[in-house]
Write a structure and sequence with these properties.
alpha+beta, 9-stranded mixed β-sheet, VOC_core (chains A, B, C, D), 2,3-Dihydroxybiphenyl 1,2-Dioxygenase, domain 1, homotetramer, 31% strand
């Protein structure tokens, strides 16, 4: 906690709107509406926009028909217009120049660029605050809309997990360019490469996660996670998903990294979706990154169910071919993320 | 725990199907369907039958259009056909003769009679086990139907609370005639009359409650209570009810008697409905009734929110005129039930 | 639901006091006191008696120093003195004669006998209701003692799971002799032998479980389970156990059979102990046993973490040698109990 | 969301260490240790330092013997040394000059100053990260210490509520000088004075609250609130507090402002202490303050138990004399904070 560290950057406000692709858009929308409990708020061509009830912006996720599942883009809302301007400048001066894109259903304009693994990101300042129609007005005016009470009843986006061939490089990109805080990383057995990194722009333990890509793909999505009110609601979500015959890949259980309580399913289009609660908060502005060695990680401290091997390979779009150096990526053991 | 006490009677199996009347049947059905999360399973004339997802019988409650709210009947399923026969005999030999009524949507035949305050009760043996249609088949075959995940998501009937001019007489009727166990009573200041009695045929702390009627009415309903999985779900139900602009009369909080966690609302037709979780179990077959004196009760041990005075007067059908001796019925203080 | 079935027997009131053996009694007592939150209430020679705060009897479990872990005895409190007498008569007339044993710390006299696998059981009527000392008086007089708030804070015994070479025979012993209700069984691939049976004397989904013994041992204990208030408290117990470096064998997760939420640990003496919440209630007095075929069971419907193979072999006392026909006992798959 | 708003200030990291005074220090320490579950970590003269298990700093609260209850000081940890310097400069240039005080048990140096109502605040940068002794090492190294599992088991300081004769002036002091975000205020009937203001330096709905002082006192403490993991744990805390015969002033229930779930007790020395969970998060960096008119506030939207009138008057040190203009301060109605 020395006095000569650079001052923290606070230009990212929070993870924002995001888009996924689905080869079965109707079923995917059904999953988000009926099972996650989101509301459809707009439609535009092949895209449908839905919102979770505790999102202050007009919409949360955009689902677009496509020939295969995957990520359309992730975004960050910025802390101020000046912050947006500063970060665009940094991107352009550091070889990550992108392009301005028009507002998407009223949110933006946004600057779109690629992270080092090729995932499209957007950053924006302008947004509209949701105004509920009369039949969805909440009784407490500080809420954004009436309680939905349908399915898993997710509140808002919690975090996103992307796959990356070079986790370390992606992490450093966000640290250098955006001042993001990294709370945990896991080293590979070589002691240099990274198997995972958990990052946040707020005191929440994770907003952005990278884990190692083991296939020949790039720019792939591991999962989006939506928050529910309590661990009880994660358990409840498992009942809902099981009876709806949705594939449950892992959980409900608790992660060792960040210690969130999780349930992993695949929406009908193939994208992995988590229903999440908790994860620690890091109040210290100078919290040091906890670096797990590969050996230490294998000891699996704490509790938590075993995670199936596919959890470390599967992503969208689906890529079958393993990378040549995939063997070097440790097959993490039980309870390993 | 002497050896010469009579053997316990186990002729009641559990509270069963029940019916309420509503002057606004459509809105009442909407409340049970949308907000409590029950499914409509049958319709017959002015009556609609709904089931909660964890009920093994084909239906749970029957809502019938009427000019005013109130109770149609409460029932018990009996432990065996012989038990049914024995209890009918007891009723007929002890001045409570009733009549046999035809099966109601496949459940029954039932013997209908009145308790000492005039509430219609039915007892029956024959019932059908619910078989879920294909789109509601639960993934675990020991469940009765797929998880509903709509609104408060009630599981099954928990208990019923009736108002009675003479609580003591009603209590003794059930003890003498059916061997019901009484876990708690509250004495009025005269030390003789009773302000409330909590009874059960199982280890659950309450199935049948009588509390003192303060109006000139009789045969009135105080409330039906439906169980949810956890206290978290009672809190969640409060969010749902508040945003649906349903009148919340009391709670969420915890009762002193039996110690259940409660939320009291009025369904649009005016009947008071509780969403409930918990309450202690009494494992001892010879558990003694705990008798609260009026003075002890006023000390309000434990925690729990104040209950509004109307809670002790309002019932359905609504009766405005207070009984002459209503003043003798203690206006119970905060946290008093 | 025919009328000619024999009437249900209600002679068992609930699982009662029980004893375990420990080669490390001090550490075992420490586990029950510090981590489960029980209080020590008596000491007698090599035996220490502890109670959980929601037990109405004076004590719950007796821990006795021994050269190896295992079961001392399990017991049932009976529904009446007449019920005790009736069941003793049945035992004596059916080849299971045992002997009367003196009260154990005031509870009893008890009739001790062996089940078909050799586990010692006791049945008794006389018991003393716990009277809390002044510093443990609960504020609500219908509680038995003040809330403990230490460690996992278990309420009372929930169920016991015993290993048996012949599950079917043990199940039939209890059904024939005591009228116990069997809610679920699992068949072995031969379609005749049973891999498990879940039984209860009340509406609780399980009080007594038998699962298949795969070693050459007999009379072995699989686990005792203690109830906590909520699934949240099972999760909390896992944090407590993990940080206390207690071995967590499985969970927290949810069983398919009876659907209880579980955490399995080994107390320092080696006995498996579960912290449990939930499991369904069976209200129907004529609920049919659900019989799982081996094939159906392997489909693992619902959700729940994989259970390690040792869960199906380990018991106390520890026996290393597998039975010759152990291979015929299916190694149940993930989420299999 | 215009582009010409000044950029947000991020100089406050989080509420930090704090001190209270107690006329009965032993009993107060007993309350914090036994009932809240904190550990004693240091002793210095009349002061005892305790920590909650999820605090990353070496200690959380300092309890000092005094002739009456009250606040010793509240503090903020700053976001950087530069942030500390900037804020000291602002204070000195704006008429709030204070003084530098030596580190308190290793935390600091700190700059101490008074808010407009006379409450002592400290701001500091330097702090030590807690290193658990061997017997309290957590099994997961990203935790700060092993799970305590004693009493209410509080995690960390959640927020502080101070009383102020001029809420508006205090609020503006923090907004102008520190860029704190105000999420809600309540206007008095005159439409100008404020009855309460809820402020935060993070996305948490409240860290610092001011409510109207109705007595002739100043610099008084309304309450400190400590966070627990879930609403279930707030309910559990109520059981613990009730059985320990601690005075429960209000709750468990849910506030309308910020919507946190609360339990208010008085520690034996007289200071009001809250066990808290939840409250909304405000992700929007430009979230507008919600301003409740007095009339709107009286409609009590949502649910929540009535709060006793003393809640709006009592603070520490205790002052009996009401201010002359106390009548102008609305006696807020049920569920009113």
């Amino acid at each position: 906690m020395t006095a000569d560290r650079p001052e923290p950057i606070h230009d990212l406000a929070h993870l924002g709107i995001h888009g996924i692709l689905s080869p079965t858009p109707d079923e995917t929308i059904g999953y988000f509406h009926d099972l996650l409990g989101m509301d459809v708020v707009a439609q535009d061509g092949d895209s449908t926009y839905l919102r979770s009830f505790n999102t202050y912006e007009t919409w949360t996720i955009k689902i677009t028909a496509a020939d295969r599942a995957g990520l359309e883009y992730v975004s960050w809302r910025m802390d101020s217009p000046q912050a947006l301007e500063r970060r665009v400048r940094w991107l352009e001066e550091n070889g990550f120049a992108g392009r301005w894109v028009d507002p998407d259903q009223g949110i933006g304009p946004a600057y779109e660029f690629l992270d080092p693994d090729g995932h499209p990101f957007r950053i924006y300042w302008e947004t509209e605050v949701y105004v509920a129609p009369d039949d969805k007005k909440p009784v407490i005016p500080t809420n954004f809309q009436a309680y939905v009470g349908r399915g898993a009843n997710v509140k808002h986006l919690d975090h996103v997990n992307l796959l990356a061939r070079d986790v370390r490089r992606c992490r450093q990109f966000w640290e250098d360019g955006f001042g993001i805080r990294t709370y945990e990383t896991i080293l590979m057995p070589d002691g240099v490469k990274e198997a995972g990194a958990w990052m946040s722009s707020t005191l929440q333990g994770h907003e952005l996660i990278y884990t190692a890509e083991k296939t020949t793909g790039s720019g792939r999505l591991h999962h989006f996670a939506y928050a529910v009110e309590s661990r009880e609601e994660v358990l409840r979500a498992a009942d809902i998903m099981a009876d709806a015959r949705i594939y449950i890949e892992a959980g409900p259980s608790k992660h060792t990294a960040i210690q969130g309580f999780y349930l992993y399913t695949r929406e009908p289009g193939g994208n992995r979706i988590e229903v999440a609660n908790g994860g620690y908060f890091r109040f210290a502005p100078d919290a040091e990154t906890y670096v797990w060695t590969a050996d230490e990680w294998k000891l699996k401290p704490g509790w938590g169910a075993p995670i199936p091997p596919e959890f470390h390979v599967y992503g969208t779009p689906v890529v079958e071919e393993l990378a040549e150096d995939a063997a070097q990526v440790p097959v993490l053991g039980p309870a390993d993320l």
